[in-house]
Specification:
Blueprint (H helix, E strand, L loop, with lengths): L3 H17 L14 H28 L16 H21 L17 H28 L8 H7 L7 H34 L1 H14 L7 H18 L2 H21 L18 E2 L17 E2 L9
Antiparallel strand pairs: 1-2
Amino acid sequence: MFGAGKLNKFADSCKLVVLARGVHTSPVPEPRDPIATAVFIELLLVIVSIAVVILGMGLLFSGGLLPAVADLGPAAMLFTPACWLLAGALYRAFGSRVDGPEHAIGPLEPPTGRPGVGAALGEVAIHCVIAIVGSTILAQLLSLTGLQVAEQADVLKITKSGFALRSDLLFLALSALIAAPLTEEWLFRGQLFRRLLAVSGPAAAFTLSATLFAVIHGNWTGFFIYTWLGLVFARVYLRTGRLWAAMLVHMGNNAVTLAILVFLPNLGEAPPADENAKSTPDVALISPDRGLRSPAIPDRVRAPSTRSSAG
């Protein structure tokens, strides 16, 4: 029989043989950052990216290297989407540098597998309804607390005249229906949500990406509605694994809002100042494209009361 000393020597000799042959049966991967640290790094990277772009644009404007926003006319509505596009590219570059080749974060893969194009389009239609109905319910709840989601006067001024082939309305449609959905989804879902999902899991990814999405719009009375929309856009992205699905839902939400404002312009008017005067209930069809004081699409439109005058 082998004694304890002989068994230890035998085990050590086996280890030497394995190492000599270069055999590694279960390599230990390099540990990644703790979740809290990883989340902090992601938030820091995206905030720094946005700040750098805004400050850079400000310096270009103040130095006369770019024309003043007021001189751009209706084309100024594309300024904010341009900022999100640049911030997304900068955040992507920062993230790749921080990750390194060993921890590079790849494309988002849905937990149940990537659906076909037809199924993805079905998800888009469902989530468009969820976005609009959910924001409407939230607006009703907010109105019960006395909070009123403010409209944007610049946008109402453009849409109150109804449909016409005017440059301001065309740029408004271009910003709300194409530029803003593409650039905001690229930054907040395609970059921030995807990276947070990889380093921290779905809870932090949904919560933090939607919260920051609401914060950057600067409309505090509509904060919960912007957050809701951010959650819906992220959900369709996660379920399909396709960023264009989130972009289409974003576009659909904006298209409904813009259509109501253009073809039913009186619905966007503010209620009478007299508290005893008739007013209509608040219905929020919010379009999340207001940030940086650039006019895009109104935050809320009002719908006429469902109660008849005879009642």
